[in-house]
Amino acid sequence: MNRAVVRLRWLAAAAAGALALGAGTATAYAAAPPEISAAPSTLRPATSQATTSEAEELGARPYMGWSSYSMQVYAGNGQQWIIADQIIAQSDAMHEKLQDFGYEYINIDAGWNGGVDEYARPVPSETLYPDGLQEVIDHIHANGQKVGLYFIPGISPEVYGADLPIFGAPDCSTGDIVKRPLQQGDYWAIGHRIDFSNPCAQAYIDSIAALLGEWGVDFVKFDSVTPGSGIGDLSLDARDDVAAWSAALQPYDIWFELSWALDIRYVDFWKEHAQGWRVDWDVECYCENEALTTWDNIARLFPKAADWWRHAGPEGWNDFDSLNVGNGQMDGLTKDERRTAATLWAVSAAPMYIGNDMTNLDEYGLELLTNSEVIAVNQTGRPAHPVSTATPRQTWYSTNPDGSVTVAVFNLGRTDADITVSLADLGIDGSVKVRDLWRKKDLGSVSGEFVAEDVPVHGTELFTFTPAKNSHIGLNDDDARLDYEGDWTRNGGKEVAARSQALTVSVFDSSQGGEAPETGESNVRSVNNNGPGIVYSGTWSQSGGRGLGDYQDDVQYSEANGSAFEYSFVGTGIDWVTETHSSQGEAEVYLDGVLVDTVDTYQAEGRGVQQVVFSARDLPNGTHTLRVVKKSGQFMLLDKLDVVEEGVIDVDHVAFDRANPADAMVTLLRDPSELVGVYRDGTALDSGTDYTIDGSVVTFGSAFLVSLADGDSALEFRFRGDIRDDVHWAGADGASVSLTFSGSKVTLTGPVGPDQGTAEVYIDDKLVDTVDLHGDVRLTQQELFTSGDLRKGEHTIRIVKASGDMLRIDGLSYVVR
Length: 817
What we know:
The protein is α+β, with helices and mostly antiparallel strands. It folds into five domains: 3-41 and 57-379, TIM Barrel; 385-468, Golgi alpha-mannosidase II (Immunoglobulin-like); 476-491 and 727-816, Galactose-binding domain-like (Jelly Rolls); 499-521 and 647-720, no CATH class; 525-644, Galactose-binding domain-like (Jelly Rolls), CATH 2.60.120.260. The chain is 16% helix and 34% strand. The protein contains 15 helices and 52 strands. Strands 17, 22, 23, 46, 47, 48, 49, 50 and 52 form a nine-stranded antiparallel sheet that branches. A hairpin with a 4-residue loop joins β18 (431-436) and β19. The radius of gyration is 29 Å and the shape is globular. The termini are far apart. The relative contact order is 0.09.
């Protein structure tokens, strides 16, 4: 049975016991969310967060705690896990076992309320809390913990129909605040959408927030938030609800957490209004009385983390859902998978809230949840990002305030494996001291590379790399250590990506009847349906070995309307290549967030294979995002995407005739200084011997060409781009970026171009240089400024835009003293 159906049945069963009026925001209906060194010295020690967080701004660190929902799902009869005695037992277990390590939130999920009062404000269930919910809240607070409750957008039809007065707003009632004509307010169609153009609507939400403040509630989980929750086409849009609740909760310092599978296109809005946001579907497997989760539900978070990492920080956090690693076999994971999940949550700075039964934590689960060095990684709030997601053996890393680097390796493959970590990939030129954080053990020093040996299937290792004196530390413009002031934008077509383009050399002999092939352009890159960077939302499966002529003999498919795939690319065009068939229907196509087409993949007879059903061309060269949403039909498929990239050489073939030997020439379409080299089978050819460069013309001499075998030989032209293919840029004079570091020298690296002017460089608030960033052509990775020797201690470099259309920032590096 489809999991979404299971969840809706769970929802209906919970709703059966609700009071007739519902609960102002439909929470009485118990709506279930839908399926589908040691640590660096500057990190806070993993002691009781409850004793230290009072002085911090709300959301300064990822929260730690417990949520009832995983056990509600596991038990089937979900409400037995939110009764007073159970919540008190979980609070006491946290106090005894986990609180000294920073865990402090006790969050009560769906189904806690039993109706509304005379002002349409929620009333706790008397059945669940016979002595009142306040007694439970007071017990949690007495344990030095915080308490959370669950809500969803909208207002129930019963509350709307009852037209109840709104507390504190004598001219307002609930019958006046519903959007007309009536619209659906949440994913499950439990309630009506609220009309926030009417000030009475905000007054109503304010009245509920004030009540929560009186109760002493510290946290609100706001579920079924759209765009998200499987719906991205704005047919449901809860952003007005989010803004209203955010404003209402703020005076009471109540943490506001949004759920679920939030749409990343609106990340700036989520960051403005909340302290956290769920980035994916539920972690629970809905395996009643069998397991809490599965490995697949953990593994699917890696590409989500790779997309969202740069958006998390002290103003809000990427929520991965409950970390269910504490109950042993019941977790549904192997021991290695449990540690991998704990590592992913830690290095991603995701809120570490568990969904386990805290009264029954096993020894290994306690070890995972109470490792102070791992917790310190999480609480420093520096989300890690991958070196590459193109391999199942992945390295993720983040730089810490003290210059050390947190490094996690993950074996997502099918066999045990050594995983090699290149220090250069981490931005380190020099040697490092390595500490194993799970084992709390120093491993000595390495340079060049480090090998994590025998990482088990679905296993992980977690380290801190501390650079030695005189090592160089390089930071990309995305790094959290950089502090931007002013109006800055990331990419937006202002970046230049590294590019490779293939050249086929065809060797033949015309005296033996051979012929030269036609030459043509070669700037299309095919991305298979399982390629890195494709983000799937909704319910998707893969089918391989169909033997129907699919690209690489596999496809990705979904049967659920609303399911979508999204892909961001750098280029000038893209094709969606799929199958057409009678089992398929319509899909909406969005380009850069704008609906541009509704494509019909229905074919009455037969089957179309590798069909281009949508094509975009002549886009401005830069970053674009394609999103396709299933609207109808039994299936929607993705076979591949063909990305049209800016060409960097003028032809895709050259020919060499042994009977009439002659040099072969290729014209570069990017500045020759950007050429990294020409490669054959991954090995660089010898510039000056195998080929020469004169201006923009590359010439392959006959002596090289004659050495190639008859037939086709593949060469590859590689051009550099901006570091990691991205930049930050600002258009207004006075915009600045700064870095605080301890080192003896600092260097600014970045692009020059016709649209850039000058920038002022300050060190420790003293103007030391004005650098000219103007260039006749756009060039990448230029050394723009290097300081002299700096005195011992901490320094701050600040770069300020002074003139030109824009200032681009790409990389900063410094030498460890």
